[in-house]
Amino acid sequence: xxxxGGIRLAPLQHLELAGAWSFVxxxxxxxxxxxxxxxxxxxxxxxxxxxxxxxxxFIGLKDPMRGDMIATLGETSGAAALVDMHFRMKNDAVxxxxxxxxxxxxxxxxxxxxxxxxxxxxxGYAYGSFLNHYGYRPDERTPVRFVDNVxxxxxxxxxxxxxxxxxxxxxxxxxxxxEIAVKWLEMMQTQLPMTALSAFFGPLxxxxxxxxxxxxxxxxxxxxxxxxxxxxxxxYYEKELETPTAELRKRLHLTPPPSQFAFDWNASNH
Length: 270
What we know:
about 270 residues, two-stranded antiparallel sheet, 2 strands, mainly alpha
């Protein structure tokens, strides 16, 4: 397991459906059977989605570290945001190419890139240092299951898979405090309801002594960068691995957080 996005991602086989009523509906549904649209898709009715959204939000509020619940909430409540994200990608040249190619950030793909062989000032080297430091694997992502549109399911997948790139570009670590700051940035960029849940209620999972840092420094920085930066899903990160991190950050109009919170992954000896 890993703590990620301010939440703990549970293995899929251990996922608990949000609430007893949702479980009953999945086991004994009287609704019209919907066709599965992709390999991990779980077709659900509108009522089932509502129950899942309410149940996952309730559990997520009680425990912001429940990654399975936050993921379920994102998929069952984020349709409007996903449509907008897809629109923004479709209306950008790089975004359109990403939608056509549908690249996936996987273990095999990243091993093939030999990240730590890139120049030390490059984005690829920084990402390799990040993965090496935390022992993370790209394949740990929770798969998308409740989005009833192939294109929008890919947008959600892409959003999840590039989350670590945001940490590398900003220099924020994956502590709860760092994850909350990244969630605020993501909320400003995507408007996904689940990012708001993590952004507003994530601080409940951290020590109150971190509140001054969050509210005086990191959250204002995240709001400012979320508004000013290029839409971060319109970046073909796989083609930027040789780009110097500082150059990529500047091109995307991202500024580092206050120096005491920023970690330079290019300077890491992993």
